[in-house]
Structures are given as C-alpha cells and as structure tokens.
C-alpha cells in the first residue's frame, strides 16, 4: 500500500511521509511526520535530527502574522534551544494531530487564535522533548536525573561538567515513552517568551527572495487555469462558445466547472488571453441588488426593532427619560480582502490521491471539500500548506472556492493544474466584509451622563447557510454583533438589536470580522455622546470603564503616550478609540491635520495593546502596525459598491489601498502582562477607523458617519 | 527567440514579443522572486530593475527589454542591495513577504540615485509599491538604516 501510493504520487521520501500521515497509514517508524530515519520524533510538533537540528512543525498558516516565529518560540522556551536555529515545517492537513485546540477536531487558522490555542500545547511539546533528552542523558552518563540541566541545545551534568548535545541523545530519547505531563517553567523564568530580540524565522528568506508561495509550485506537465466567473452574483452559465478561446496559441482546453468556465493553457499569458476571448452567456438571477437599494431597504429596516442581542436595564424605553437625546446612522461598505498574493492553488489528482499545494486557513474543511470534488475520501487528500502572501480571512472560505475550482479542473483535464485568480477576479469575486448600517439612539441625563443606548445593527449573516451556522443562536449571528453586544461601557439602559437581511452578495470574515464595523460605529457614537454631554471623550470612557481595568489600562497608556489633552494647532485634532476583540484590548489615538478645504492627513497613531503575555513583542508590534495600516486603508478608501448585482470595482485603481505616502507614524506600546496570551493578528484593526473619525471631528467639528472617509471631511 | 540578460545570466526564450516580462520570467524561466499582484502596473509586486530603473514587469512586453539588464530580488546585489537586504532582516520588515521583492528593488533604485533620502523622497519613490500587511513604517526605517550604513552624504 505504501509503495503504491509513493509510486502513484511520485513523491520523494519527505513528501511520502506527509502523504502517509494524511492518509492515516501506519508506518513502521511509528512516526508520521516528515522525519528522516534516525530522527527523534518527540511528538507531532518537535523533531530532532542526529546533527542536533530541531524542526518545529507549525500547524497554522503563515500569512504574514508571524506564526512561523511565535510558535517555534513557545517550543524553544521549554526545549532550551536557540529559536534562530529552528527549522520550521508546515503541518500536513490532519485534524486529529494538528487541530485548532479552540475549534475542536478542525485544523485551521483564524480568529487570532494561533498563539492562544498553542500556548500550552507547544510549551508542553518542547518540555516533553526536553524531558526525554534529559532522561536519555541520565541513562547514558549513569547519573541522577536531578543533577542535569538542559541549556542551549545540550544536557549538562553540573557536578562533573560533562555535557551531551541533543543530537548525541536522539537515538536513546527516541526509545523512551513521552512524559504525559512534563513540567513547564513559571512565567518569571522565561528567557525567550516576552523578550525582545527574537527575529522572524522567515525574515531572511523573505528579504532574499527565496520563500516559496503556492503560486511558485511547478509540477511536471502542469497546466495553468483561469476561470471565467459571472460578474453578477448568483448568475449561472447558459452557453459557452469555446472556439475563439481554443484558437489562442497555448490554450489546451475550455471546461465548464461549477463556478464558471475554466480556460486551461500552457502558461498564464495564454490562459488569460483565452479567457478574454471566451464568448459566454449567463442566466441572471432575479435578485440583482445595488448598493443604493440596499441602503434604502436597510435604512427602512433600522426603523423597526430587530432581534435582541442584548438588553439590560429598561432597554430603549429609558430613552424617554433622557434629558437630551441624540440619534445617528453609521454605514460601512462591502470590502474585499485583496491580499497581495491573489488566490491560487496547485492540484495533482491521481486515481487514489489528491495532492494540493496552497496557502489555506481551513485545512480540515478544505480537505473535505476537495475530497468531495475529487470523489475521494478526505484521508486521500493531502494538503501541503505553504505560506500565503496575505489572506486577512479570504483563505478561510467555507466554500473552499479556489481549492474546489482547482480540483474540478484537474479532474476534467487529467493533468496537474495551477489555478490562479487575477486581481480582477479577487476584487469582483465576492466573499466581502459585509456592508452594514448601524442605527443609534442615545439618551443623556441632566448631568450629561449616558443614560440609555440603543444600537440596531443591520448586517448580512456570514455564518448562515455554511458549516458554522450552528453558532447562530436565536437568530443572532454572533459575528454580526461582536463588539456591539458586548459593549463594555456602564450605561444603565442598553439595548442591542440585529437585523440580518439576506442578499446574494457572498460575505466572509475580514480581518477583525464584526469588530471591523461595530468598533467604528460604537466608538464614534460614544464620542458623540461625550461631546453632547460636554465631556472629554477620554474622561467619559474612563468613567464608564471602571469595571473593565484592561480597557482602561490601554486607554490610559495610549492617551499618556499621545499627550492627550495637550493643545494642538488649529486644524489639527486627536481622536481615540478603545476596543476589545479576540480577547485582546487595543486603544489608539490618531492625530490628523485638516486643511481649509477639508483635505486631511493622518499624521500619527499611538497604539497600546494588552494581549496578555506578548510572546514575541516585535511581532506583536508589527501586527499592530499592520492592523492600523489595514484598517486605515479601509477607513480612508476601501469600498466595494454593487450595481445590478455585480461589484463595480476591479483592481487597485478603483479599490484603493493605503500607500506608503499615506502611512502615518505609528508607535506601539505593549502593556506588561502575565496573563495567558491572546490574539494579535486582528485586534489592531478595529480602533483605527473610529480614532481617525473622532480626530476629524475634533479638528473640524464635522462628524463622519460613513466609511470610507475619502480624502476630504 | 528573444535573448534576455537576467541577473547577469544570458537566457533565451521562445516567446511572443508582446508577452509580459512577468510571465516570461515566471512561466518560461521559472523565476519565483518576481510576483504577480495586479497585472496593471498598480501594485508594484512585479517590480524588476531594467538597466537599474524600476519597471513593472506585468506591463512590460518582453520584446522591449531584449538584451537589457534585468535584475530581480535574488539578483539584487552590490553594496546597496546587500545593505538593504541586511536592514530588511535586521528590522524584520517583511510580514507575508509577497510584495517585498518589489519594495527592495524600488528602494535600491532610490538609494542609487539619492544616497541619503528624506521620508518624503522615500514616499515618492516607493508609492507605487503596495503592501497590504502595512510594513510601510519599517520600510522607511530600513531604507534609512541602509543609507546610514552605506555612508551616503545627506
């Protein structure tokens, strides 16, 4: 069986082990990792070679957020090795061994969980390996185990000065039974975790140009496929005239697949020209919305009560008792993720094996969806996860869209396939951050204190109809109201409601998901309440956050570092926002300059973050910097508009993204903590849009309630 | 056949002269360190140096660069290239890394022209290179660091 698969797949030895691992095949070596003979495979995450080289298997997708650095550090801390010397290997799709501990038997990356769910698992993995190496050393030297210490890749016998490198111990260690519960260091003894100076493990390869992405995989006989998909969401193929496409030199096949028509060619250039030459006719769906229609319909919805996501005190009936009332509607648009690397997937499909090379966030789900498309069992689908050139949630797709497309084409043409989305495909292809409306009614008492808060969210459900639909409770999709239903402010009467209108435009999680719009709406409206009540926005927040010390701490830190309250020149302004997402707390103060004609620049952003223990502080800082840039890009420019059922934008000229000349100075401050680490990939995003909008108000007196802000206030 | 000079090596390709240089380099010559991002000269991921000047390979017909000196990320060398790569590593500029080849090549062209650039010089020279991970602050810092190491006059 093993030989058959190996031959069928024409794999080298390392790949072969990965296949066997994914197929659940028993191996004589007892290990199913990419280990070579003689390696000490301590567990699913740690392998040590006879030359002492340590390999850490990373179960998460590296998409820029730094898991290939932070996760090995967790191992290195307990294993007592230099993280810079660790080789990083990406795990094969294997829900049992490489599941996301927070998600059950599913391997996947998302929700800023990579570090948090690995926190104990990887330290234990490192500690178990260390304990086995020490036990092996004790046996070899015939000394008591208590006289040994693991130091920098060696086990040292203190009293005699004898020392053995890990590589010298691998054979004996491999024969030992792994300890069930190896001891872990107390926080105070960490020498790597939380310390500065750890470099990214992939920094050199990315600077030198040797990193391999999914789009770099080339297999013998591989063809390139582009898919023509309907511009109108929900349209289906009526007719296709293949002749003009097939007449292009290099085009080898035109095959209808479930999402459209694939043009298959010897290279990208031919496939692209072939696709452009296709003559296609689509059957359009009856429902073809436009942004204007959605805005009109959803504005009407906001006038009616939605499902209750939270109600406390007297709810909105307290509004009648308010001395002062204010109301506002906030709006955010659909957004494309637009990672720099457009979606792509390489598939080699044999009779008994489907191999996939791609950067994907939901390996277990993608494995099942690919299996279905291939007509195989999931165990016969191998996913070689490769670093992705960004994702921001796009590669966590319940439809596994780009992967299923590649499998379908491979099945149709009988050759290895590289499927590529162009930028136009990416921008027009849907799976957007939902367009949302937020209707607020606020009431202040005679002293200017918030008395009542009613927030109606109107947001298409991301989870409805997909594999996560079970998380919808009483009609409330939790990701539609995250950041809104858990508003931390002590407002005595509070009501949050949700409308979830249906709409054919496909939506998806986009870096920080619900918080990407709820933070904008809630933090701006709270600012409105502060100004209406004649209160300083910082002072009001502090007062209302007495029961939330972590919110308060980041707020205080950001405000102090930004010089909150210090005078500014005319036309300049500061705004702040604080938001919890993914169990991390982030506050940001933005400084803007508004010119007489309303044009403005965002000059400086001061950010404070509490993510528990910051495992690799520089990566945490990078994620805040990146989150701010990503959020600012959307706050200033990001907008997909829909017309007659199709997206109107198509590439970076009309789906503008932040450029270096628009990047403010960013300072990041980390709150020291001994709490369990929480996420950092997403929490930097939510506060920036409201911080900037609040700063614009401070500078100009004009309140922006609709994103994107554009270039002028 | 079109004759190309890629990173100092002579390469012959059998491609139509209007085929974009990007796809000749990727699909015919098997180079990975040049990236497809937009296909419209909008993002800079496909930046290469042609006789030292940054060009967008996605929109450059291969026929136009026959015989000219093409440099990609891996071929970026010499004092400026080395200093930039070292600064990039030291400051951990890259996140996903996909755009970084184009960033480095644009930065190299800048430093060769302007050895001690201001922030404004950097913004002008680098504004065609998008980074969705938001590494811009570190890009600025790394260019300054490399410039200092190279001892450029201000």
Number of helices of chain B: 5
Q: In total, how many beta strands of chain B?
A: 5
State the low-pLDDT regions of chain B, or none: none
CATH architecture of the largest domain in chain A: 2-Layer Sandwich
Lateral strand order in the biggest sheet of chain A: 10-11-8-18-15-16-17
Strand content of chain A: 15-25%
* Class by alpha and beta content of chain B: alpha+beta
> What is the succession of H and E elements of chain B?
EEHEEEHHHH
CATH class categorisation of the largest domain in chain B: Mainly Alpha
What's the main sheet of chain A like?
A: 7 strands, mixed
Average pLDDT of chain A, rounded to a whole number, is 94
Q: Round the Cα radius of gyration of chain B to an integer and report it.
A: 15 Å
Strand content range of chain B: 5-15%
CATH topology of the largest domain in chain A: Aldehyde Oxidoreductase, domain 4
Rg of chain A, Cα atoms, Å: 27 Å
CATH superfamily of the largest domain in chain B: [2Fe-2S]-binding domain
Biggest chain pair interface: A-B, 61 and 54 residues
List how many beta strands of chain A DSSP finds: 27
Q: Between the first and last Cα atoms of chain A, what is the distance in angstroms?
A: 68 Å
How many separate domains make up the residues of chain A? Answer: 3
């Amino acid at each position: 069986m093993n030989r058959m698969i190996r031959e069928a797949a024409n794999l080298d030895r390392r790949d072969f082990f990965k296949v066997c691992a994914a197929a659940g095949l028993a191996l004589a070596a007892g290990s199913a990792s990419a280990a070579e003979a003689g390696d000490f495979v301590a567990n699913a995450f740690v392998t040590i070679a006879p030359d002492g080289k340590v390999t850490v298997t990373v179960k998460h997708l590296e998409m820029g957020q730094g898991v290939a650095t932070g996760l090995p550090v967790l191992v290195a801390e307990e294993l007592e090795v230099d993280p810079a010397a660790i080789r990083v290997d990406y795990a094969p799709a294997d829900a049992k061994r490489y599941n996301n501990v927070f998600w059950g038997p599913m391997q996947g990356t998302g929700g800023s969980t990579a570090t948090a769910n690995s926190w104990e698992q990887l330290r234990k993995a490192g500690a178990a390996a260390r304990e086995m190496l020490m036990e092996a050393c004790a046996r070899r030297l015939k000394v008591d185990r208590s006289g040994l210490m693991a130091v920098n890749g060696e086990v040292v016998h203190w009293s005699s000065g004898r020392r053995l490198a890990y590589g010298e111990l691998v054979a004996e260690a491999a024969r030992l039974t792994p300890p069930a519960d190896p001891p872990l260091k107390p926080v105070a003894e960490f020498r790597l975790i939380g310390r500065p100076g750890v470099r990214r493990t992939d920094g050199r390869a990315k600077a030198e140009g040797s990193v391999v992405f999914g789009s770099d995989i080339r297999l013998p006989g591989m063809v390139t496929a582009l898919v023509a998909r309907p511009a109108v969401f929900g349209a289906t193929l009526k007719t296709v005239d293949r002749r003009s496409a097939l007449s292009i030199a290099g085009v080898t096949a035109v095959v209808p697949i479930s999402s459209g028509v694939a043009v298959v060619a010897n290279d990208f250039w031919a496939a692209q020209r072939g696709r452009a030459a296709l003559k296609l006719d689509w059957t359009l769906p009856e429902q073809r919305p436009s942004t204007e229609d959605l805005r009109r319909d959803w504005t009407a919805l906001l006038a009616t009560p939605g499902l209750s996501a939270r109600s406390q005190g007297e709810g909105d009936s307290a509004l009648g008792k308010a001395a002062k009332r204010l109301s506002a509607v906030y709006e955010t648009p659909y957004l494309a993720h637009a990672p720099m690397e457009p979606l792509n997937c390489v598939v080699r499909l044999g009779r008994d094996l489907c191999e996939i090379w791609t950067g994907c966030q939901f390996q277990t789900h993608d494995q099942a969806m690919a299996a279905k498309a291939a007509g195989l069992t999931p165990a016969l689908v191998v996913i070689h996860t490769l670093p992705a050139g960004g994702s921001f949630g796009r590669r966590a797709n319940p439809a596994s869209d780009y992967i299923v497309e590649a499998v379908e084409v491979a099945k149709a043409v009988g050759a290895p396939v590289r499927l590529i989305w162009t930028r136009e495909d990416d921008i027009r292809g849907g799976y957007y951050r939902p367009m949302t409306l937020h209707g607020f009614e606020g009431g202040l008492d005679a002293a200017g204190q918030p008395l009542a808060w009613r927030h109606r969210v109107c947001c298409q459900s991301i989870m409805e109809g997909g594999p996560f639909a079970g998380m919808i409770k009483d009609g409330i999709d939790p990701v539609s109201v995250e950041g809104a239903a858990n508003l931390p402010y002590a407002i005595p009467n509070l009501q949050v409601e949700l409308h979830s209108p249906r709409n054919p435009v496909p939506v998806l999680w986009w870096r920080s998901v619900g918080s990407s719009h709820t933070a904008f709406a809630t933090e701006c409206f709270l600012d409105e309440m502060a100004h209406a009540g004649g209160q300083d926005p910082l002072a009001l927040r502090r007062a209302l956050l007495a029961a939330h010390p972590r919110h308060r701490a980041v707020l205080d830190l950001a405000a102090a570092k930004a010089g909150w309250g210090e005078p500014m020149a005319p036309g300049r302004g500061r705004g702040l926002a604080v938001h919890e997402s993914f169990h991390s707390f982030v506050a940001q103060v933005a400084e803007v300059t508004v010119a007489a004609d309303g044009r403005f620049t965002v000059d400086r952003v001061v950010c404070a973050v509490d993510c528990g223990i910051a495992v690799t502080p520089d990566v945490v800082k990078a994620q805040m910097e990146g989150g701010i840039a990503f959020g600012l890009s959307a706050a200033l420019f990001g907008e997909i508009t829909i017309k007659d059922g199709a997206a109107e934008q198509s590439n970076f000229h009309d789906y503008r993204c932040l450029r270096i000349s628009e990047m403010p100075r960013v300072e990041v401050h980390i709150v020291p903590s001994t709490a369990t680490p929480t996420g950092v990939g997403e929490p930097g995003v939510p506060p920036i849009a409201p911080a900037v909008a609040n700063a614009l108000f401070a500078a100009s007196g004009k309140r922006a309630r609709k994103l994107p802000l554009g270039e002028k206030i | 056949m079109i004759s190309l000079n890629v990173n100092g090596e002579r390469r012959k390709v059998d491609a139509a002269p209007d085929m974009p240089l990007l796809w000749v380099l990727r699909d015919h010559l098997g180079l990975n360190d040049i990236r497809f991002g937009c296909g419209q000269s909008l993002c800079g991921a496909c930046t290469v140096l042609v006789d030292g000047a940054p060009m967008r390979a996605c929109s450059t017909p291969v026929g136009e660069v026959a015989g000219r000196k093409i440099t990609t990320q891996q071929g970026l060398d010499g004092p400026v290239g080395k200093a930039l790569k070292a600064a990039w590593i030291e400051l951990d500029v890259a996140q996903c890394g996909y755009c970084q080849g184009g960033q480095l090549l644009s930065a190299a062209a800048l430093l060769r022209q302007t050895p001690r650039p201001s922030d404004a010089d950097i913004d002008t020279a680098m504004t065609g290179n998008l980074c969705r991970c938001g590494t811009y602050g570190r890009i600025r810092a790394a260019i300054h660091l490399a410039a200092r190491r190279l001892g450029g006059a201000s």
